[in-house]
Amino acid sequence: MAGRQRTDRRPDTARTDAGADRNARYTVASLLAALVPVSLARRAISVTVTADRDVYDRGVPVEFTVTFRNRLPVAVAVPTPHQRRWGWTVAGELEASDERRYMRSQPSVFRFDGGERKRITVTWNGRFERTTDRHEFVVPDPGEYEIRVFVATREGRYQPSDTASIRIR
User: Which InterPro entries match (predicted)?
Assistant: First the structure.
């Protein structure tokens, strides 16, 4: 039946000239990720955070780069209890704010292919957000501050993370 298209396969499955599913590697990767124990998957992820400078003037935005890397040659999946897969803090305050964060309680998964690196650049505006009496942004006092980046795993579990220190003058 020349000229007819085959419609008995999923439309999102592409085929190569050899007839093999081009998306089959994702299925194999997902299968391999499912075989990696969660405790090993959490430990396979490394986190690195680096600020673009060591010293900042008060109120000046701080740019930092976050790199997540799967050290294993196979795909891994790290479950998270909420939609947040990762986060950052300044001086222990999530996203440099005292505002309460409402995250959907629906679990999520932070997925990595074998050896994959994810690099993200974040800019903190250089101020702490305060929401108690009135909503305002406060310039921090001069001193040393720690930026911490983490994978948002369940409390009490190993949490891949890294820190960078900056000085505000």
Answer: DUF7974 (IPR058280)
Token pair listed for 94:
């999530």
Tens-digit pLDDT profile for residues 93-127: 999 887 776 666 789 999 999 999 999 999 999 99
In the chain, the amino acid numbered 77 is A
What angle (nearest 5°) sits at the alpha carbon of residue 88, between those of residues 144 and 75? Answer: 135
**CA 21 – CA 44 distance, rounded (Å):** 29
**Per-residue CA distances from 26 to 3, 32, 97, 141, 168 (Å):** 30, 10, 38, 49, 45
CATH architecture of the domain with residue range 43-168: Sandwich (2.60)
Distance CA 114, CA 1 (A): 42
Which pTM value belongs to this model? 0.76
**Are residues 46 and 71 in contact, defined by beta-carbon separation less than 8 angstroms?**
yes
